[in-house]
Write a structure and sequence with these properties.
The protein is of the alpha/beta class. It is built from 17 helices and 14 strands.
Length: 438
């Protein structure tokens, strides 16, 4: 079986690589010639645990190919997955120009029946736009070739994407014909041997499922952050509250950890897009508007705590920032709280020394040389007035607080993810600030 993946970003590269891992012949296409050249040399455009070795292995075995030509890759392809970017426009809506450009190119060059699958996160109704784009090009050619469209949203967690794809909780596929469903069933059969369900549905429902899933997770995060802020005012401990509610099977333990706000490529963009889709259809998503408001405000919590402790004027002060990426095990800096926190502190006159295990090069795109990048987490502490834990990387979980106390000018720790024991740090002479704690 042969398929084509268009787009070698996070979703496209992981999808293509994992399909090749089970024996499918995959060609990943991208218009960025430099990116394709690097991939052919084994140089990854993103950081994702396990991805590089899997790409190299399947390239060596002749199952994974890279190209800049969609036209050439369409030969004998049974499905084309569109996995290009859908960046938010100024109004929050998803920009579909890249998706529709691929659809038009498929219509211009397809040589036989093909299923055109939207893998990118796209608003409800996008499949119809893709259908029209392909059909218009076929009509221009005077061609009677047939095709189907399908929706196959991704549910990958950055930092665990390989495992998520190979061992999915569920596979959601929106189809419009028996023929396209059979192709998608055959494509995903290797992933179903362990009982993971494939849920077939109509295409609009599949498109909505993706947005609803991410918006629900974002809602849990913002709700817990709201509760955490109230806990501080009332003298409650959000960690205890979290354990108390998480033991309820209807709520569960996932995505109820308070922090400095969510970021990344999915939650902020998808919440905005669903709000905009609702507006376009005359409906107000009141809960999601609140979710977004809470998250935007939460990214200021850390700077507010610093100001409360040190005062409004931070001139001449330096802060050690541990972690820059929006979450551990990724170099993704999109909508990362660290950017907001660093800029807010610098606006008050502070200097920032930061370390992240993998995201510092990406961070330079947003922060440039406005902050100092250090070789490890302990170097950030030298002559720093306080330490700020922003991203809960595993290597930050059990640091040497004796060393930290000696390197810092003031024994003050701001824990943006509640990964440290406040009582233990206070016994060591630190002043400790968490999120939603007494």
């Amino acid at each position: 079986m042969k398929i084509t993946i268009v787009g070698t970003g996070y979703v496209g590269l992981v999808t293509g690589t994992c399909f090749s891992e089970v024996g499918i012949d995959v060609t990943c296409v991208d218009i960025d010639a430099k990116k394709i050249e690097n991939l052919e040399k084994g140089i990854m455009p993103i950081y994702e645990p396990g991805l590089e070795s899997m790409v190299l292995k399947n390239m060596e075995r002749g199952r994974l190919h890279f190209s800049t030509s969609l036209k050439d890759s369409l030969e004998e392809t049974e499905a084309v997955f569109i996995a290009v970017g859908t960046p938010p426009g100024e109004d929050g809506s998803a920009d579909l120009k890249y998706v529709l450009a691929v659809a038009r190119e498929v219509g211009q060059h397809m040589k036989d029946y093909v299923v055109v699958v939207t893998k990118s996160t796209v608003p409800v109704g996008t499949a119809e736009k893709v259908r029209h784009a392909v059909a218009d090009e076929l009509n221009k050619r005077g061609s009677d070739l047939t095709f189907d469209v399908a929706s196959n949203p991704e549910f990958l967690k950055e930092g665990a994407a390989i495992n998520d794809f190979l061992k999915p909780d569920r596979i959601v596929v929106g189809v419009e014909s028996d023929r396209s469903q059979k192709i998608m069933e055959r494509l995903y059969k290797p992933f179903l041997l362990n009982g993971h369900p494939t849920i077939f549905m109509d295409i609009p429902s599949a498109e909505m499922t993706k947005y609803a899933a991410n918006s629900m997770l974002a809602t849990k995060i913002s709700f817990m952050n709201d509760v955490a802020n109230l806990c501080e005012l009332m003298g409650a401990d959000v960690n205890m509250v979290r354990k108390g509610i998480g033991s309820d099977s209807r709520i569960g333990t996932k995505f109820i950890y308070p922090g400095v706000g969510y970021g990344g490529s999915c939650f902020p963009k998808d919440v905005k897009a669903l709000i905009k889709t609702a507006e376009e259809n005359g409906y107000n998503m009141r809960v999601l508007n609140a979710v977004e408001d809470v998250n935007n405000a939460q990214k200021s919590i850390m700077a507010n705590k610093v100001k409360k402790h040190f005062g409004e004027d931070l001139s001449g002060m330096t802060f050690a920032m541990w972690g820059l990426s929006f979450k551990p095990k990724t170099d993704d800096m999109r909508e990362a709280p660290s950017i907001v926190i660093a800029n807010q502190l610098m606006a008050l006159g502070a200097k920032i020394k930061a370390f992240d295990p993998v995201a510092m090069e990406e961070a330079k795109r947003d922060l440039g040389d406005t902050i100092t990048y250090c070789k490890d987490e302990y170097e950030t502490l030298i002559e720093a007035d306080a330490m700020l834990l922003i991203t809960e990387w595993p290597e930050f979980r059990v640091p040497n607080f004796t060393v930290i106390g000696k390197l810092l000018k003031n024994k003050v720790v701001f824990d943006g993810r509640n990964i440290y024991d406040g009582e233990e740090l206070r016994e060591l002479g630190f002043e400790y600030y968490g999120i939603g704690l007494k």
